[in-house]
Amino acid sequence: MKQINLFVIFISFLGIVSCKKQEVTNPADAIYFGGDIITMEGNEAQYAEAVAIKEGKIVFVGSKSEAEKMKGDNTVMNDLQGKTLLPGFIDCHSHLLTIADGTMQANLSPAPVGTVASIPDIVAALKALKTKQKFSDTSLLIGWGYDQDFLSEKRHPTAAELDAAFPTNPVVLIHTSGHMLVANSLAFKLAGVSAATKDPSGGTFIRKKGSNDLEGLVQEMAMVSFMPLTKTVLSDEQEFKKIKAAQEYYASCGVTTAAEHLVTPEKMPLLAKAAAAKLLFIDLEAAPSFQMAKELLGTGKIKWGVYNNHLKYCGLKIATDGSPQGKTAFLTKSYLTPVPGCSHDCKGFPNLTQEQINELMLGCYSNKVQLYSHCNGDASIDMMIKGHEYAMRKLNDSTADRRTVIIHSQIMRPDQLDSYKKYKMLPSFFTNHTFYWGDVHIANLGMERASFLSPMKSAMDMDIIATNHTDASVTPMDQLFLLWTSVNRISRNGVVVGGAQRIDAYRGLKALTINGAYQYFEENTKGSLKVGKLADIVILDKNPLKVAPIEIKDVKVVETIKEGKSIYKKQ
Q: Rounded to the nearest 10 degrees, how much is the dihedral formed by the CA atoms of 116, 119, 120, 126?
């Protein structure tokens, strides 16, 4: 009897021990579950039940029951309640500092981005800016985002019109493309430009018909004269405030890695100061302007490809041509509508010569610096392909992993995709153009060329790693709208612009996540939900893979998380 009682006691003890809560030796900081978790791993959508993060990195992706084994006393359990979680969006081309500067400029955008519909509206917006910012009667007034195609006058404003409205203020209006501006007489004077000033290589000052007098419009490289003029003298504190506001805007769009592609010489010290002060809370991929190539390539002045407090110099940026809607993009076939400053065979023009491009590419390749080139027209893309071939011959090296990025890759030809494939060049497309300017492109180029605008499906079908971008501030940073344009390709007027180039929503998301990580040589640390990668996450109210394609633009960002820390939460 005594032996039986001891046995019972022993068994009971084992039961108590086995029921005792096991101590978690390496608990997660947070676990997410209860919704659609899209990993962005693989060529088709893959889902996980839970994701665990610790110290800013992903430590588990898989079943909820396994994730719960990492739950400690301080682990935050985040029930998604049916919402959708996926990797944070990677901005493959935009201008964060331009967004920052825009906080002190007049927004001249047409609907649906803004409300400007006429030249009097432009004047009214500038007067409102002057009052709001308490600018003096001699202060420089800057407006951005105007688009002549959506003004009731169907033309650019003139210097004379701006002079009449602002006789004592210099005025500069920046076109929505960023590739042209309109100045008034005082602004021309401050920039040192007169009727006697010759057009620079790769740029034009548009003249009044029958004379050398300046009409007001300034295109491409001719804008360089105005760069010193448009510098706003602010304290570091004021500049940092603008950069903070710009980052908050990007974060509200689900972006955890942002771009500033064309850092100008005067902005380089500002970025360095912001990084040193630890003011960047999202990663910033900065590409200095080609104008600083001699100063930066091979000199050791900056470290390429390495983060310093969220700032990385990802490569050198070239501006090879202009804007297709502004009709300065360099084409092999003429525009079909009248072009300012051109009377016949109007194909736009390059900003640089082939020799300049050759030497820039050779300089980048020799120093193992990634190259980003703005190319809207097929003729400018031809120049980049030739430059790549030149540099390869000079270096006798065709195997290096360079990942040269052709930004926009808009008005293309199918044979150029063959070259991209052959040389492992990466197109970063701009499908927002199909909505914002699709109707304009059809008029300017004809349906055949317009339909091959940003040919994402053709590229992806060839296994070319392609990305997509907003080019903010040219179009809003809205990543879900960008996804919508790549899937639907519908213009403002409801016209399908290149239906054969529509892609499915999953491939559209790849262009904004894992492919973006690849573009920046960061596929091992970002772009998908995988153990060891950064906990860069966006939470959406709906799954863009499960809503109707036409409804993708209505999906909203609920929260953005950078390295495990929430940097935006919808109120």
A: 70
Structural tokens at position 451: 């339909």
Q: Which H helix or E strand runs over 13?
A: helix 2-19
Q: Enter the tokens of residue 54.
A: 């610790």
Residue 131 one-letter amino acid:
T
Task: Give one word for 532, left, alpha or beta, with left for phi > 0 and alpha for psi -120 to 50.
Answer: left
Query: Residue 405 is inside which H or E element, if any?
Result: strand 405-411
What are the backbone angles phi and psi of residue 399, rounded to the nearest 5°?
A: -110, -10
Token representation of residue 256: 């955890």
- 207: Cβ–Cβ under 8 A, 6 or more apart, which residues? 195, 213, 214, 215, 341
For residues 188 and 177, is the Cβ–Cβ distance under 8 A? no
**Closest to 500 in 3D by CA, of 470, 456, 549, 465:** 456
Q: How many whole angstroms separate alpha carbon 317 and alpha carbon 47?
A: 37
Lookup result for tokens 């009097």: 120
- In 3D, which of 230, 236, 296 has the Cα closest to residue 269? 236
Count of residues in the chain = 571
- Distance separating alpha carbons of residues 531 and 58, to the nearest angstrom: 5
Neighbours of 238 (CB within 10 A): 11
Q: How far does CA 532 lie from the centroid of its chain?
A: 26
Going by C-alpha positions, the residue among 188, 129, 196 that lies closest to residue 163 is 188
Distance CA 447, CA 199 (A): 33
- Each residue's pLDDT, cut to its tens digit, for the chain (571 residues) gives 444 455 444 444 444 444 444 677 889 999 999 999 999 999 999 999 999 999 999 999 999 999 999 999 999 999 999 999 999 999 999 999 999 988 889 999 998 889 999 999 999 999 999 999 889 999 999 999 999 999 999 999 999 999 999 999 999 999 988 888 999 999 999 999 999 999 998 889 999 988 999 999 999 889 888 887 766 567 888 899 999 999 999 999 999 999 999 999 989 999 999 999 999 999 999 999 999 999 999 999 999 999 999 999 999 999 999 999 989 999 999 999 999 889 899 999 999 999 999 999 999 999 999 999 999 999 999 999 999 999 999 999 989 999 999 999 999 999 999 999 999 999 999 999 999 999 999 999 999 999 999 999 999 999 999 999 999 989 999 999 999 999 999 999 999 999 999 999 999 999 999 999 999 999 999 999 999 999 999 999 999 999 999 999 999 999 999 999 999 999 8
Nearest by Cα to 80 from 537, 527, 553, 541: 541
The alpha carbon dihedral of 159, 161, 163, 169 has a sign of negative
Measured distance CA(457)–CA(290) in Å, rounded = 31
Which residues are 319's β-sheet partners? Answer: 374
Residue 463 three-state SS: coil
3-state secondary structure of 36: strand
Rounded CA-CA distance 385/364 in Å is 15
Name the DSSP letter for residue 541: S
